[in-house]
Amino acid sequence: MTQLQTTISITPVIVGADKLQSIAVVFLRFIQVMKMRNGFLNLLILPVVLVGVVPPDRALGQPTTSTTNAAPAPTKQTGDLCPQPALSRLTRHRVAAGETVITIAQQYSLIPATLMGLNPNLREGNVPVGTEVLVPPYNGIRVEVPSGSSWRDIAAAYGVRADALYEINGCQDNPRVVFIPGINWSPNQPTTGLPSQSSAVFTGYPLPATASVLTAYGWQASTATTELVFHSGVDLAAERGTPVLAVGGGTVAFVGEQGAYGNLIVINHAEGLQTRYAQLDGMMVEVGQRVNAGDRIGTVGSTGVANAPHLHFEVRSNSNLGWVAQDPVDYVRNLRF
């Protein structure tokens, strides 16, 4: 794909200090909108340094404090410049005859999982005529903010920028519910609190170098049919024969051919976690073998249900329902693209 480079020339202008943040906020939002609407992969800005809205670092829900000599907080000025919170800009779509979750999502340039996350009545796949569907302005999830969490806590937990998250939610000081952009909803994903992070367990990456995500975790529109299918892991782009690496220390629990998985390796880890590496060509470990993060366990292939070589990678957690699929991006770094 052609890389689009845009250069914006700026004529220096002397402005008062009180206007600096206003200009920075407006300019930052212009760049974000241009990216979203035009799909720019790279946007090179010369010679400007962007300054975004800085979210307060205190815990959400805590009152602001000030002293007599302190400058007034820029809440009103920032609020006037920030957009309305994403959750206050929901579109209400009335389902017409013949519409499905997929076709409705396509009308609004969203993925089906976004609508299913915001509308629990759609999660069984049925969309009765006349049903009202809440449609957000872009893909993401609705999350209840746990007490004592700051904007930076939420941003770090979901791998997004704190300043962008703050602005998308209307620069609010004390929101109880926020919209996290770019996160795919899944049935196992909590709508309250922050996602669990297990960096102590998984310190590696499943390939020698960071790869593009071909298919993300969660509900996806099938390329072969018009039905929604749940994808229990992530598919990473890689050439046939590329080494596959364990993301953390553990014990090999399964090695062999397993239906749609093709050649599959399963590793059990600490804290009730498990990883699966599928569609493999070669498998280089045995059941019961101990492995460490970074150990070579196999090679990329296209066995099982696969149109081309890639690595299908899963993270699962043990529960009374068995090994339940989790979103790998919550556990392994550099999986979000």
Give the helix/strand class: alpha+beta
- CATH topology term of the largest domain: Glucose Permease (Domain IIA)
CATH architecture of the largest domain: Distorted Sandwich
Count of separate structural domains: 3
The best one-word shape is globular
How does this structure look, described?
- The chain has 337 residues and is of the alpha+beta class.
- The protein has 3 domains: 1-54, no CATH class; 86-181, Membrane-bound Lytic Murein Transglycosylase D, Chain A (Roll), CATH 3.10.350; 213-330, Glucose Permease (Domain IIA), CATH 2.70.70.
- 17% of the residues lie in helices and 25% in strands.
- Strands 5, 8, 9, 10, 11, 12, 13, 14, 15 and 16 form a 10-stranded antiparallel beta sheet that branches. A two-stranded antiparallel sheet has the order 1-2.
- Helix 3 (101-107) crosses helix 4 and helix 5 crosses helix 6.
Brief sketch in words of this structure:
The chain is an alpha+beta fold.
Supply database-style keywords.
337 residues, alpha+beta, Membrane-bound Lytic Murein Transglycosylase D, Chain A, Glucose Permease (Domain IIA), 10-stranded antiparallel β-sheet, two-stranded antiparallel sheet
